[in-house]
Amino acid sequence: MRGERFAQNRGTSWGQVALTAGLLLALFYVGQNTLAGRHGLLALIEKRQEIKLLEVELAEAQSARARLERDVLLLSPPYVDQDLLDERARSELGYAREGELVIFRTQD
């Protein structure tokens, strides 16, 4: 009789199969979200690339701002740069002196 009970307990029960399957599904779910989830590794890589692009854009904007600040300083009294003033007036008003060659460029 004792041998029969022991033999019955050695077999795999449906409860153990269900528990193992549940644990494997949970492990797969956690692994999938770690890799491809909203806050997973792939999202992290994508955000880092976006940050690099935005840093380049920021550097370009800062450079443009520095150029504009320099131009404003050169056009402000008492440091008025006559050459820069002449260049800006011609550019904005579309004037050219007689005999000058004007080349128009399109902005891309």
Structural Rg: 36 Å
Which structural class fits the helix and strand makeup? Answer: mainly alpha
Counting structural domains, the number is: 2
> Regions with pLDDT < 50 over 5+ consecutive residues?
none
**Quaternary assembly:** single chain
- As a percent range, the share of strand residues is under 5%
How would you sum up the global shape? rod-shaped
Mean pLDDT: 85
How many strands, what sense, and barrel or not for the largest sheet? none
Report how far apart the termini are.
91 Å
Helix-strand pattern: HHHH
**Count of beta strands:** 0
H/I helix tally:
4
Q: State the share of residues found in helices, binned by percent.
A: over 70%
